[in-house]
């Protein structure tokens, strides 16, 4: 459960603001004006604090509640700037394009790829196969995971495919996330980038029907219950 204890505004105002920001192409200035028209006077800094404070917690709940995904994965990374430096948004979808996991990292190496795999497996189970590009980091991460499975005495292994055709799904899925990120022109901090991307990915999951059908905002509000 996401706690709103100590918040100076009603929970529904906070949730409306966070969802509207991560789902639609609005700036904090636009959002401030929208809220003012509805009688809520909120400054830019407060809106940013709400996203940073609540978006990641709601994303964690969404991961626990999402519908079952397929065991055939597609892995890739998208580029994001934070503090003027390149960061890497590790993303995984299944063969049907459903979101599996996402993680922002300051590095693109074996350690980051392995950490992402552990995170994805913990929330989705061990995949049967994974399609990747020629990424050295992802290749090393998958090899490391298979080595860990062998060391643990498991007979299971993750089959690795390098297929552009298989990876088209995740590359196409990047577009919706990038479309929302582009107007932001980069993030001022890694923490803010992480929280905002968590919110964007959660809204994207809702749009894909992974958290049920119905009003998207009502589904988002239910994550805080």
Total strands: the figure is 5
- Could you say what the CATH topology of the domain at 72-185 is called? Nucleotidyltransferase, domain 5
How many DSSP H or I helices?
A: 8
Q: Any low-confidence stretches, pLDDT <50, length ≥5?
A: none
Mean of the pLDDT scores?
Answer: 93
Distance between the terminal alpha carbons, to the nearest Å? Answer: 6 Å
CATH architecture annotation name of the domain at 72-185: 2-Layer Sandwich
Q: Compute the gyration radius: what is it?
A: 18 Å
Question: What is the helix fraction of residues, given as a range?
Answer: 40-55%
Structural class by SSE content: alpha/beta
Pfam families: DDE_Tnp_IS240
Protein name: Transposase, putative
Domain DDE: 72-210
Organism: Sulfitobacter indolifex HEL-45
């Amino acid at each position: 459960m996401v706690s709103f204890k100590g918040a100076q505004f009603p929970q529904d105002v906070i949730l409306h603001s966070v969802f509207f920001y991560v789902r639609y192409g609005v700036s904090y200035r636009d959002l401030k004006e929208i809220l003012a028209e509805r009688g809520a006077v909120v400054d830019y800094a407060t809106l940013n604090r709400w996203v940073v404070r609540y978006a990641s917690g709601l994303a964690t709940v969404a991961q626990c509640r999402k519908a079952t995904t397929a065991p055939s994965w597609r892995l890739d990374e998208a580029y994001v700037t934070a503090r003027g430096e390149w960061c890497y948004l590790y993303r995984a979808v299944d063969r049907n394009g459903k979101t599996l996991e996402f993680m922002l990292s300051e590095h693109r190496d074996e350690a980051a790829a392995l950490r992402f795999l552990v995170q994805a497996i913990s929330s989705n189970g061990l995949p049967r196969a994974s399609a990747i590009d020629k990424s050295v980091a992802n290749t090393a991460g998958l090899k490391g995971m298979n080595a860990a499975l062998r060391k643990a005495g498991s007979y299971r292994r993750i089959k690795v495919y390098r297929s552009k055709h298989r990876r088209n799904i995740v590359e196409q899925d990047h577009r919706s996330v990038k479309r929302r990120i582009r107007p932001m022109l980069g993030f001022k901090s890694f923490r803010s980038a992480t929280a905002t991307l968590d919110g964007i990915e959660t809204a994207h999951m809702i749009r894909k029907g992974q958290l049920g059908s119905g009003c998207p905002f009502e589904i988002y509000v239910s994550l805080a219950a």
